[in-house]
Structure formats: C-alpha cells, structure tokens
Design brief:
Blueprint: H1 2-18, E1 23-24, E2 37-38, H2 42-48, E3 49-50, E4 60-62, E5 75-81, E6 96-101, E7 114-119, E8 124-131, E9 138-144, E10 153-154, E11 170-173, E12 195-201, E13 207-216, E14 230-231, E15 238-240, E16 244-257, E17 262-272, E18 280-287, E19 290-297
Parallel strand pairs: 3-4
Antiparallel strand pairs: 1-13, 2-13, 4-7, 5-6, 6-13, 7-12, 8-11, 8-13, 9-10, 9-12, 14-19, 15-16, 16-17, 16-18, 18-19
Length: 298
C-alpha cells in the first residue's frame, strides 16, 4: 500500500509539473465567461480587427491583397444577422455580429476571404461561423513565425475529393489548432514559438466569423500584471485600493481572470476582492450611465 501511495504521489507531482498555464489572447473584459471574443460591438471590432497596413497592429487581421487585387476584402458589421444550422437567417441558435468573409470566385482558386493572427504561440484556437451556404469548404492554416497568405501552409483540405467540412450553415469549429495535413505543421505550438493562425473561406456565399477563442502559453502584453488602467470614458468610473474595487455609482460588477474566465460578480458601489487568490484580474462594471473596466493586481 505504501509503495502504491508513493507511486500516486509521484504521478501527481509529474502531472503538476507538466501542466502549463494558458492565457486568453484578448482582454478579459472583452471576452465572455467561456473566453470567447464575439464581434458583436463596434468597439470590439475597432479594438481588435483591421488590415495589416493599419496603425496599431490589429490582433485579428483581414486578408488583403494590395498588389494584384485578386482577393476580395472582408468587412465587419456588429449588426449582421447570422444563420442557424438549418440555414435560417436569424433563426433559433443563430448569432448576431461578425467579420464577413467574401465568397471564393470558384472552389479551385481558394480565394475567398479570411482572417489571420500573428501569435506568440498557440494552445487553443476555436471559431463560430455561419453562412447562407452550407459550410462545406473551409480551410485553416498559417505557418511558423509571421507569414503572409501567399506562404500559408493549409492544415486541412475539404475540397473534393476530400471530406466536406460541414453540411450545416452554422458551425462551432473547435480545436482548429490540432488540424494536421501531414506536412509537419499544426497551428498549436509550444511556449515561445511564434506562429501564424488563419481561417479561409472557400464557399459560394459570404461566411460570417461571429467569434473566436484563442488561448496562448505566453501572456499577451495587454494583460500584463501590474497595469492599472481605467477604460471606457463614461460617467461611471472605478478605482482600486488594494482590497476592493470602488465604483462612482451602483453597478453590476464582474471579475475576470487573465484567461478570460468570470470568477466573481456582485452589484453595488464596492466589490471586495479578499476571497480571490493573489494574481491579476479585470473588473468590468455596467450601470445606467455606462461601462468601465479596471485591471487590478492583488
């Protein structure tokens, strides 16, 4: 029995060492409790999405071809109405808001719209898509380091004679990072290995990317511990005294970990954080007069 217990203890020690902490690539205040970034407000689109030539280095880049103009450019609309699995626009289970990827001119060209990201590494990559057309042909890919579309390695094939991606008009595309085309490249990469992650559309109708979830092993610079800033600019504002967050008026307040998970919530003008483990958090408050967000470290 003693040897068995020692073996179990040793296994637990190995497991704890091998486990890696992962972080949401986007600000905790902008993702939901499950870590998803939804493109359902203009503020989030303006903050994260853009073309490579734009200043501010957008985190989610839209496919653009300034040289030959052979690829149509995606657009963004926080109010675009998506489709459910049965193809009904605005039907039960559909989403609102997203990045709209233009259709391919033909299936062989693979020249539909797309998005891509330059990541410090990648642990998880998921997306929610919908289209008037069934999502039978979608691609993911990228490459090691920062690569452009012309150099992407496609990590899954769905064009005939290959397997269809989906017969539905609405898809929750999970674990894109693990797609493998047997060419020695997958999007999932270990800590510190820079990678480009991309989604490309190749169907007859526009494809809407409603939301994405991206987790990395390296903490993004915008969520570094020790930063204490207030966002929003509304009549509502927040402050932190080391133990509690104080609001200038009663508000619904939610606390998020740096990985994007909601860990606590309350209503009022003061939110004590004594029960939370030491670390970095984002507190988001919503009142009748606006929204405010503050990053805290306790």
């Amino acid at each position: 029995m003693k040897k068995f217990l020692l073996a179990v203890a040793a296994l637990a020690a190995v497991s704890s060492v091998s486990a890696q902490e992962i972080y949401n690539y986007f600000d905790a205040a902008d993702v939901d409790a499950d870590g998803w970034l939804w493109f359902d407000t203009q503020e989030k689109i303006d903050k994260y999405v853009g073309f490579p030539s734009m200043s501010g280095n957008p985190k989610v880049m839209l496919m653009a071809d300034d040289i030959t103009d052979s690829w149509a450019e995606p657009t963004c609309d926080p109010n675009v109405v998506g489709y459910n699995a049965e193809g009904e626009q605005g039907g039960e289970g559909s989403k609102k808001g997203g990045i709209i990827l233009p259709p391919a001119t033909d299936m062989a060209s693979i020249n539909g719209g797309g998005i891509y990201m330059f990541l410090p590494d990648c642990a998880e990559f998921h997306a929610v898509l919908s289209s008037e057309s069934t999502l039978w042909s979608m691609f993911c890919g990228g490459g090691l380091g920062e690569v452009e579309r012309v150099d992407f390695i496609r990590t899954n094939f769905t064009l005939p004679p290959f397997m269809k991606f989906s017969n539905d008009n609405y898809v929750e595309w999970r674990n894109i990072q693990d797609s493998d085309n047997k060419k020695n490249f997958i999007i999932k990469q270990s800590k510190g290995t820079k990678v480009t992650a991309a989604i490309l559309a190749c169907v007859a109708k526009p494809v809407i990317v409603h939301g994405i979830k991206v987790m990395t092993y390296t903490k993004a610079s915008n969520s570094e511990a020790g930063i204490d800033d207030v966002l929003g600019g509304s009549a509502l504002s927040l402050s932190f005294n080391g133990n509690a967050v104080n609001a200038t008026e009663a508000a619904d307040m939610s606390v998020y970990s740096v990985s994007g998970a909601k860990v606590a919530e309350a209503h009022g003008t003061t939110f004590a954080l004594d029960n939370l483990a030491p670390g970095a958090y984002v507190v988001k408050a919503v009142s009748a007069n606006g929204t405010a967000t503050i990053k805290v470290v306790r």
